[in-house]
Amino acid sequence: MQDVLTIVLAGGMGSRLSPLTDDRAKPAVPFGGKYRIIDFTLTNCLHSGLRQILVLTQYKSHSLHKHIRDGWSVFNPELKEYITVVPPQMRKGGKWYEGTADAIYHNMWLLSRSEADYVVVLSGDHIYRMDYAAMIEEHKRTGAALTVACMDVPKEEATAFGVMQTSSDKRVEAFSEKPEQPATMPNDPTKSLVSMGIYVFDMKTLQEALNSDAELESSSHDFGKDIIPKLIDTHGVYAYHFGEETGRVAKDSYWRDVGTIDSFYDANMDLLEPVPPMNLYQSNWGIRTYEPQLPPARTVPSATGNEGIFINSIIANGVINSGGSVHHSVLFSNVRINDGATIADSIIFGDVTVGENCQLANCIIDKHVVIPDGTVIGLDKAQDAERFHISENGIVVIPEGYVFAE
Fold first, then answer.
1. In a 3-state reduction of DSSP, which class is residue 264?
2. For 272, phi and psi rounded to 5 degrees?
3. Where is the Nucleotidyl transferase domain positioned along the sequence (predicted)?
4. Is 140 exposed, middle or buried (0-12, 13-18, 19+ CB in 10 A)?
5. Which of 31, 95, 106, 378 has the fewest CB within 10 Å, making it most exposed?
6. Taking a C-beta distance cutoff of 8 angstroms, is the pair 328, 310 a contact?
């Protein structure tokens, strides 16, 4: 699709995902045993035929830049294909990106240099699979100035999204960002139609909208709050229902904003369902990532004769389980589990060592942590709260590189 430029917004702080985002951008947070969150958006681009991609970064972006360099240097510049990381260039003055629309406005020079007729705007911090090509084709067919991907959610959850009202031909008639009283769907008063933050613009429409918005001091320079409501009054804005794709991706309609510890934890646990709501194993829609060359995972009998056991878990390469027991958990690469340790309902990032006779439950362990023998985490909230962050649903989070007191 040489007539399409793709922009991935990947500069958010992700403060609600702290402490996992204390030292990395939200799109760079590990997910599902081997991936980074941004891999899902970039994989969708790859399979959808989008080959001109700008990734706008900002907050603590080093690990994100490194991951894209190592895992996504797959396009051929000689064919005008690229994935280019674009940190703030200060071309519009000495400011950082101050909103989703402002981030693109700061890079208007890249839009003007592009030969594309259409611009796809995506977020780099959602977990889903989608064929963008089908959405782009519908955008062209309807002659829309802007097409917004949407999905229906329970009314009580819609307050966290931009809520749309549409006509019978899917034209958007009203848009309200995070309303206290969301409008409901005509055929189902229990649900609301919400924006997924996935947009297809005509290039000219986007440029004009961003230039006009930049002149308004009262604007928050956000697509949902400022850009979309104004375009509805002056242009043809249409809704595209997620899951209606006719492309190769399975129509599972799975989409998650993993913006909090609990939503991140739940999305990982979804992968452990007997029939996961999102199938990572669809052969023609594989999720691409970077993974170091490591030996296969294995179990090892301990010196006491205990066998390493894995039950209903995701296990990455390089994991060694020497006499421990792992149940309903997600383990990233190079995790070491020692004799008598038990791990349940947990997520363990890479390069973590679990000492002998540890008991871990309902927790997330970030990278480069050595857990001393006999440590108990996730079974005593009062004790855990003295040392660690605990989510609303009781998930205990140990930050990267945490050193336990002797």
1. helix
2. -100, 0
3. 6-272
4. middle
5. 95
6. no
Tell me which H or E stretch contains 100. Answer: helix 100-105
User: What confidence tens digit (pLDDT) does each residue in 17-40 have?
Assistant: 999 999 999 999 999 999 999 999
Instruction: Give the predicted TM-score (pTM) of the model.
Output: 0.93
Q: Evaluate whether 395 touches 263 at the Cβ level (below 8 Å).
A: no
Q: Is 71 annotated as a binding residue?
A: no
> What 3 state SS string does 43-59 have?
HHHHHHCCCEEEEEECC
Residue 382 to residues 56, 241, 278, 362, 369: CA-CA distances in angstroms?
Answer: 41, 45, 35, 14, 22
Angle, helices 38-48/132-142, rounded to nearest 10 degrees:
60
Tens digits of residue pLDDT in 126-184: 999 999 999 999 999 999 999 999 999 999 999 988 999 998 889 999 998 888 898 99
- Residue type present at position 285: W
Side chain identity at 49, as an amino acid letter? G
Closest C-alpha to 222, from 232, 231, 213: 213
The token pair at 209 is 């909208």
- Cα–Cα distance for residue pair 149/126, rounded to 1 Å: 13
**Which of these, 74, 106, 79, lies nearest to 91 by C-alpha position?**
106
- Delineate the domains of the chain, giving CATH numbers in brackets: 4-284 (3.90.550.10), 298-398 (2.160.10.10)
User: With 0-12 CB in 10 A as exposed, 13-18 as middle and 19+ as buried, what is 295?
Assistant: exposed
Is 97 annotated to bind a ligand? Reply is yes
Instruction: Read off the tokens for 245.
Output: 């794709």
CA-wise closest residue to 232 among 324, 316, 323, 170: 170
| Tokens read off for 327 | 């149940």
178 is in an annotated binding site: yes
Contact 319, 331 (CB under 8 A): yes
Count of beta carbons in the 10 Å neighbourhood of residue 16: 15
Asked whether residue 265 is marked as a ligand-binding residue, the answer is no
Give the CA distances from residue 32 to residues 37, 43, 267, 275, 368, in Å, rounded to whole numbers and listed in that order: 9, 15, 8, 15, 18
Q: Has 254 been labeled as part of a binding site?
A: no
What residues have CB less than 8 Å from 283, skipping those under 6 apart? none
Scanning the structure block, which residue is given the tokens 């280019």?
Answer: 84
* Residues contacting residue 61 through CB under 8 Å, at least 6 positions apart: 10, 11, 25, 28, 85, 87
Distance CA 120, CA 55 (A): 12
